[in-house]
Amino acid sequence: MTSHTARATKRRSRAGAAFLGTLVFALAGCAGSVDTGQPEPAPSAAAALRSPAPEGDLPTELQSALQAVVDQTMSEYDVPGSAVGVWIPGEGAWLAATGLADQEQGTPVTLDMSWPLRSVTKSYTVTLVLQLVDEGVVSLDDTIDQYVDGVTHGDQITLRELADMSSGNADYINEDFLTAFEQDPDQLFTLQELNGFMLGKPAQFPPGTRKVYTNANTNLLGAVVEAATGEPFADVLEERILRPLGQEHTAYLTDASAWPEPHAVGYMPGDGALVPQDQNFSILGAAGALVSTLDDARAWAQTLATGALLEPETQATREQGAPLEVGPPYDLYALGIGETDGWWGHNGEGVGFTAAVFHQPESGASIVVFMNESNVEPPAHPADQTFRRLAAVLADRAG
Fold this sequence. Notes:
This protein is of the alpha+beta class.
């Protein structure tokens, strides 16, 4: 085995083990397809929902305070690079590319880079389900066995419980999955194959009795989208969200070779140094396989938090939640969306990257943070920490 091959094998093995630890806490169905007979969503109506970014720059003093937060957090967690945006209606915007996208090559981060959204993807997937709820195609009270066979307690677990992380499902990130992944880290897994790893596995707890963040919940909802529409998940996402909102730089990936350039290298700590991570987006599925850019993420933050793609009653239902017992740091987690101090959105982490995408409906402000390090020790979420600290700067300024 050459030294290059040995390093690659070691890196992939480390990525597989870290993937289990990270996505359990961070990050196609077996049922037949259904002809819904529903009309296609009207792109013209949704296209108007992408508000332009505020014009102009935020005040110089505020920019300095925001940059100081980014610099401090990157130093604290040894993050190589970040892309951060803060937008405040009526005042302007601040965008910052800081540090290195690739340490080995010395490549700086740029504002046009594509970044993994990781679990922010969940907010897109649940939005698709809620659109189908609005159209009467599915109900939040439907049980998952109506769409996917073989889920333990499938006749009891509702789509609502999948969306709010109270299903009790086993995760697909288990020994069977890790064995398959480590045997061939380049294998492109289908959504159906990912779901297959959790079918028939013992439940973590009875449905609806606890809130434990589990990636399999969202991949099962991806299978619901496919079964209810009769189309591949990626196509439904493109038709219903990405194209109507003009998200030309957001994509659902399975093959990492299709990841648009430029993009950063993701790192995790290991052996006293940061170790670059190979990427296989197919292992994430509907729970985490999206990539995006700063401005597309800004537009999504506002769309998600304001419910612009949903009926008002459905958005109100979406926001009903409670704190997670196990999972990412939110004040509460609802239906594919989290809330922290009045900011609504989602964060994501895994295999070298962290992301935070949030909007504050009261002020209209949005914050997006992308960073290229995950699995920091002691455990923390660098992008989410940065978001919280930036939000605190805005709150102190307001009052």
